[in-house]
Design a protein that fits this description.
This protein is α+β, with helices and mostly antiparallel strands. Helices cover about 30% and strands about 40% of the residues. The chain is built from four helices and seven strands. The structure holds coenzyme A.
């Protein structure tokens, strides 16, 4: 499995959006707005590949000089549980560290809280609702 960054607006970025839509939005009866996707131009889009097959993706958004936000982590149904999520998370942390950030924050779906917890992320505060489902704030110091 290889992990690489893909530029916003390219066909690989569009493939990542399709995967995010299928995993994170369609099951909830939701979709991205054009404005939401346009706002991602400044973000970093990491993708995981098995050969030429896109199997996972995650988005890095700068939050402050010290902090980045991890968003939109999604692994394809067929690939789940085979290490793609862990590979993306590790690449995300390496890149954030290399760029001089010292903290990662995210809004984790409650169903994925255990995934982040086993990779050293702490939970911060109460459960809240986002995209119609329960989430928790999590963070990790690099
Ligand atoms: C959550 C998600 C990104 C994890 O990716 P993945 O590729 O399935 O995870 P991996 O195979 O790399 O698993 C890494 C470890 O985390 C564990 N794990 C994976 N998903 C987990 C979960 N939901 N809860 C608890 N532990 C989990 C695995 O068992 C594995 O443990 P191990 O190292 O002891 O073997 C993926 O399941 C997914 O896309 N889920 C649906 C969308 C979603 O919830 N995204 C996150 C939004 S915040």
């Amino acid at each position: 499995m290889t992990v690489r960054s893909v530029p916003h607006g390219t066909s690989d970025y569009e493939a990542a959006v399709r995967l995010r839509r299928a995993v994170l939005r369609t099951p909830l009866g939701l979709d991205f707005t054009p404005e939401e996707l346009a706002r991602e131009a400044a973000d970093t889009h990491l993708t995981a590949w098995s050969g030429d097959q896109l199997v996972g993706t995650v988005v890095m958004t700068r939050y402050s000089d010290a902090t980045v936000k991890l968003r939109q982590m999604a692994v394809s149904d067929e690939t789940r549980g085979t290490g793609a999520g862990a590979a993306l998370l590790s690449a995300f942390e390496d890149l954030a560290r290399a760029r001089g950030f010292s903290e990662i924050v995210l809004a984790a779906r409650q169903t994925a809280q255990g995934f982040y917890a086993r990779h050293g992320y702490a939970t911060d505060g109460a459960v809240f609702e986002e995209v119609t489902i329960p989430h928790v704030r999590m963070w990790k110091t690099l």
